[in-house]
């Protein structure tokens, strides 16, 4: 091979390498990097509370306890809420109390023929309440609104219930030790349309204490519902409210072992044992306390 042919071959190879190095690769050609293009700003949904999206309007009249009530709810904007939840709390002497445990309700947005929107919900306490509604929207945002309302009972209660340790009681047992000497009772009223009894203020309930004979075995404070055991014996506490009444049999024993036996009888609903020492027991005492 002469020198001229070698020179031509070398030149051709060098040109091929040079052109190949300058040619864009297929990957870069399909995915060009645009360094001079400004980024496009896209709005991100606001995940914070947007109180301006909804508004609750106070009703002109008191709402009815345990009944479905209409509450005007204004939706601002075109987006509709996916979910609506109402919570309730009592306002006592101008102070908000904790949210009522059974007062949370998921409600549906309704619309009148004239276009006005509303929700239906059931108040679970009488008196002055604050309602809080939380709304979630399809764009990821949330809304919140509150309103204060008055609630009245349109019908009298169905029955009364005396609670001890958060359960209904018809009999209570004590002994004269420090552990079981003092206990408290609470009175609740059951209304139509409500699953659980409503706690009543002690001042709204009338109490009577009856004993079969002699000195009372207990000291009862109707203002607080506190029962203090004084001596061995039995007593009957009667709670009265709006024409209804509920009786509670109170037994004071000497020692804790006797209390344990009586507590089992109370839980299983077995009546109190007869006491032959009781003479001339008042009316109603025998039926409730077994004397």
Question: What does it look like?
Answer:
This protein has 291 residues and is mainly β. It folds into two domains: 102 residues, Sandwich (Immunoglobulin-like); 131 residues, Immunoglobulin-like, CATH 2.60.40.60. Helix content is 15%, strand content 39%. It contains four helices and 21 strands. The strands form five sheets. Strands 2, 4, 5, 6, 9 and 10 form a six-stranded mixed beta sheet that branches. Strands 1-3-8-7 form a four-stranded antiparallel beta sheet, with no helix packed on it. Strands 12-11-15-16 form a four-stranded antiparallel beta sheet, with no helix packed on it. The N terminus is likely disordered.
General form? elongated
Number of discrete helical segments: 4
Ends distance = 135 Å
Structural class: mainly beta
CATH homolog superfamily of the largest domain: Cadherins
Our Rg estimate from Cα atoms comes to: 38 Å
Short account of what is shown:
With 291 residues, the chain is mainly beta. It folds into two domains: 51-152, Immunoglobulins (Immunoglobulin-like, Sandwich), CATH 2.60.40; 159-289, Cadherins (Immunoglobulin-like, Sandwich). The chain is built from four helices and 21 strands.
